[in-house]
From TrEMBL, chain A:
<feature type="domain" description="Glutamate synthase">
    <location>
        <begin position="356"/>
        <end position="404"/>
    </location>
</feature>
<feature type="domain" description="Glutamate synthase">
    <location>
        <begin position="75"/>
        <end position="332"/>
    </location>
</feature>
<comment type="similarity">
    <text>Belongs to the glutamate synthase family.</text>
</comment>
<keyword id="KW-0560">Oxidoreductase</keyword>
<dbReference type="InterPro" id="IPR024188">
    <property type="entry name" value="GltB"/>
</dbReference>
<dbReference type="InterPro" id="IPR013785">
    <property type="entry name" value="Aldolase_TIM"/>
</dbReference>
<dbReference type="InterPro" id="IPR002932">
    <property type="entry name" value="Glu_synthdom"/>
</dbReference>
<dbReference type="InterPro" id="IPR043578">
    <property type="entry name" value="GltB_archl_type"/>
</dbReference>
<protein>
    <submittedName>
        <fullName>Glutamate synthase domain-containing protein 2</fullName>
    </submittedName>
</protein>
UniProtKB/TrEMBL annotation, chain B:
<dbReference type="InterPro" id="IPR036485">
    <property type="entry name" value="Glu_synth_asu_C_sf"/>
</dbReference>
<dbReference type="InterPro" id="IPR012061">
    <property type="entry name" value="Glu_synth_lsu_3"/>
</dbReference>
<protein>
    <submittedName>
        <fullName>Glutamate synthase domain-containing protein 3</fullName>
    </submittedName>
</protein>
């Protein structure tokens, strides 16, 4: 009779998994935290956890190819003399020249213009190419004030005061020296090749009372023409939105933790801020409590990928959405055609996020002229326009199925949730029930 | 000379007039009465106008000034001449926080004292303060000159880039990466020029010390982490 002791296979810790162990070793070897681009990579409750109910006995749908479903949106109707008119409720989020190459910025402008929407500058000022190729351009007013000048303020179509960013609420930025070309250095008034720190707080105001006066100044300088947006990260959306309204915002831009950044500490991206889904209802509630819903427009960003996401954000009360990461993917970021080069950089297509190092094979997050020349801004712009149109068609398809003749007519009652978490965050019933956590105090 | 009494005239009307001078008009000099702490007075000037403000102003007076000559015959609230592009702003009294913040050009003269964060993130502006300045002044200063005839508060020039700082009195403490540097002939010449432009007499450039960036934090190095 043979005899052997049974044994269990080797078992790895769920707490100390392979990724965690590798990160500990990396930290021990280098002595520096991991810096990367993009938004959170962890799985968080998101729009995928919501479903539309569609038409039924109580609602009838609109005919897909016959009956109109409007998509236009006007931003900045509260105080600005010249509000922004968009054909679609999907805008391009702020991304800097510096973080992105000049052809990439041009492509975003071209694509947005073809689709009838706006694009946004970033931390580094406005370039002539960007202004020239963007019919509607939002100018970001950031703590660093790199490249800030009254001429660009006046030639912008709207001004976005950046208070926070979903990837790093409470954080500033750092553009590493290898991306500081002569032109980037000149625009930022700094020597070439040094790391450029972007402050986390504005230099000349603190708090909403000061911001109210700052906005008065910006309006005076621009003759009260431009809509003033306030961009906040997903931190305390109810109070932040209320305070933004109090400070005089025409538009609130709310960015959840899936929203990207050019470069920040991984620990910041993954552990600070709230998922986009959790931010929308509190922000809408703040607007409703102040009687400002639809008067101060709400733009939601952070993880918007498809027309379904657009429709869900709007159904929860947003007036528009904004895309950054998805727009970069549309113009060629992380494309498998560059797989060999991604591997040479120690990454793979779909995971490449060392945007701060300036070696992007796709020529998007770089200032290397040779790499940047790989991106044809005309073709890339066309791709972005196509993508924006597909998203819009998808959102319209859903809206018609819900019997809505405008995307803004979508409402929470059109939705149900697949998980308890999503039901609680979106405040829509768990599928098959009439209940969500917290409803009626339970 | 057009005179605007802000106790009876809306701010918008005054600021608009500064930027909409009728063609052929010779009225480039303006006087403001009763500012009473109004904010954004003379913000956004884009032509070489002269503005005399008879009294004290609130936040952001002469904000983003581009070519104007603005004199505040009183004191100024936070952010006077913030992001100035060119021109001259003179404050006869004291200035609150962030005077000349992020300024890119022009000359800001404060005849009294300036509070904290004077010249924060300055990007080319020249600032001359006849009195003292508060803490964290010239924080992250990128370019330009800050001249202080009196004393400087704590953490002067913290995280400084290429702005040049001259202080005649005591410096309570220097911020991260800010060090005292040799005063070379070109610095003495520049200082003399700035003092003259600011209308300061009886003070010699040799009485000042120069401070600038040690440039040790220009590129991130984990061994410098204690400095942050």
């Amino acid at each position: 009779m043979s005899y052997h002791n049974p044994h269990t296979p080797p078992r790895k810790s769920a707490t100390f998994d392979d990724y965690t162990l590798a990160e500990i070793r990396r930290a021990a070897a280098t002595g520096i935290y991991d810096i990367r681009g993009g938004g959170t990579k962890r799985k968080v409750p998101h729009f995928d956890d919501l479903l539309f109910l569609g038409a039924s006995m109580s609602r009838y749908p609109l005919e897909g190819y016959r009956e109109k479903c409007e998509t236009s949106v006007t931003l900045g109707t509260r105080f600005a003399r010249k509000p922004i008119q968009l054909k679609i409720p999907i805008t391009i989020a702020g991304m800097s020249f510096g973080a992105l190459s000049a052809p990439a910025k041009e492509a975003l402008g071209r694509g947005a213009t073809l689709a009838g929407t706006s694009t946004t500058t970033g931390d580094g000022g406005m370039t002539d190419e960007e202004r020239g190729h963007s019919e509607i351009l939002v100018y970001q007013y950031l703590p660093s004030r790199y490249g800030m000048n009254p001429r660009d303020l006046r030639r912008a179509d709207a001004i976005e005061v950046v208070v926070g960013q979903g990837a790093k609420p409470g954080g500033g930025g750092m553009l590493l020296g290898q991306k500081i070309s002569d032109r980037v250095a000149e625009m930022r008034t700094l020597p070439k090749g040094i790391d450029q720190r972007s402050a986390c707080r504005h230099p000349d105001w603190t708090g909403p009372d000061d911001l109210e006066i700052k906005i008065l100044e910006l309006r005076e300088i621009t003759d009260w023409e431009k809509p003033i947006y306030i961009k906040i990260g997903g931190a305390r959306p109810y109070y932040d939105t209320a305070l933004a309204v109090k400070a005089g915002a025409d538009v609130v831009v709310l960015d959840g933790m899936q929203g990207g950044t050019a470069a920040t500490q991984d620990v910041f991206i993954e552990h600070v801020g709230m998922p986009t889904l959790a931010c929308i209802r509190p922000a809408v509630q703040a607007l409703q409590d102040l009687g400002m819903h639809r008067k101060v427009q709400l733009v939601v960003s952070g993880g918007i990928r498809s027309g379904a996401d657009v429709a869900k954000a709007l159904a929860l009360g947003a007036d528009a959405v904004s895309i950054g990461t998805a727009a970069l993917v549309a113009i060629g970021d992380n494309d498998p055609r560059w797989e060999d080069e991604y591997r040479a950089l120690g990454s793979t297509a779909g995971a490449y996020d060392d945007w701060h190092e300036g070696k992007d094979p796709a020529g998007i997050t770089t200032q290397d002229p040779e790499l940047a020349s790989r991106l044809d801004p005309v073709t890339a712009g066309r791709k972005l326009a196509n993508y924006l149109k597909v998203m819009t068609l998808e959102a319209q398809t859903i809206a018609r199925a819900c019997g809505k003749n405008h995307l803004h007519n979508l409402e929470p009652e059109d939705l149900c949730a697949l998980t308890l978490e999503a039901a609680a965050m979106a405040q829509v019933p768990l599928a098959g029930t009439g209940w969500y956590p917290g409803k009626n105090g339970f | 000379m057009p005179v605007f009494d802000l106790s009876t005239t809306p701010l918008r009307e005054f600021n608009s007039a500064l930027r909409n001078i009728p063609e052929g008009s010779n009225d480039f000099s303006f006087e403001v009465l009763n500012p009473r702490g109004s904010h954004a007075v003379a913000a956004g000037i884009d032509t070489p106008v002269t503005v005399d403000v008879q009294g004290s102003v609130g936040y952001y007076c002469a904000g983003m000034n581009d070519g104007g000559i603005v004199t505040v015959h009183g004191s100024a609230g936070p952010g006077v001449a913030e992001n100035m592009m060119s021109g001259t702003v003179v404050v006869e009294g004291d200035a609150s926080q962030y005077a000349g913040a992020t300024g890119r050009g022009g000359l800001l003269v404060i005849r009294g004292n300036a509070s904290s964060r004077c010249g924060i993130s300055m990007k080319g502006i020249d600032i001359v303060v006849l009195g003292n300045i508060g803490h964290m002044s010239a924080f992250m200063g990128q370019s330009g000159h800050l001249v202080v005839l009196g004393d400087a508060g704590e953490a002067l020039g913290d995280s400084l880039y290429e702005a040049k700082l001259f202080v005649r009195g005591k410096v309570k403490s220097l911020g991260a990466d800010c060090v005292e540097k040799d005063m070379r002939p070109e610095h003495l010449a520049k200082l003399a020029e700035l003092l003259e432009k600011a209308g300061v007499s009886g003070v010699r450039p040799e009485e000042f010390k120069r401070y600038g960036s040690a440039r040790k934090l220009y590129n991130f190095n984990i061994d410098n982490a204690d400095a942050y």
